[in-house]
Amino acid sequence: MGGSGSNTNWPVSGSGGSSGSEPCNIHFQTNLFSPDAAVVASLKVGDALDIELYTQGQSTSVAALTVNTRQVAGTLAGARQLGDLVACLRQGHQYQGEIVAIAGSTITINVSKV
């Protein structure tokens, strides 16, 4: 995923979801939760992040990882589509996020199926 700027066709956080008959054709816009300042400092608008299940100890979350260095930039939380996303990730579907805005510690990404 590339490019820069904001795509006004993306739904805002809490809206959007799957389309058609494919329940894993998920796409939505959300902010990263608990972004890692050291990792985020190296990111820019247009960068891609891999969206994956991330287990740390006994806790599993949906994390946004840098493509090359595999560092956790932050996690996804609060999006209405999160349950479907987790189920689809467990089925082996792959997702990426594209950074569309960085405002201080607020990192906004568009999530979509690869």
Description of the structure:
With 114 residues, the chain is mostly beta strands. Helix content is 11%, strand content 46%. It has 2 helices and 7 strands. It has a 7-stranded antiparallel beta sheet with strand order 1-2-7-6-3-4-5. A hairpin with a 2-residue loop joins strand 3 (48-56) and strand 4. The radius of gyration is 13 Å and the shape is globular. It starts with 16 loop residues before the first strand and ends with a strand.
Which percent bin holds the helix content?
10-25%
User: Structural class of the secondary structure composition?
Assistant: mainly beta
Sheet with the most strands, sense and barrel status: 7 strands, antiparallel
Low-confidence stretches: 1-19
Elements, N to C (H/E): EEHEEEHEE
Compute the average pLDDT.
85
Q: Give the strand order, joined by hyphens, for the main sheet.
A: 1-2-7-6-3-4-5
SS summary, helix count: 2
State which percent range the strand residues make up.
over 45%
* Number of distinct beta strands: 7
Radius of gyration: 13 Å
Give the termini distance in whole angstroms: 9 Å
Shape: globular
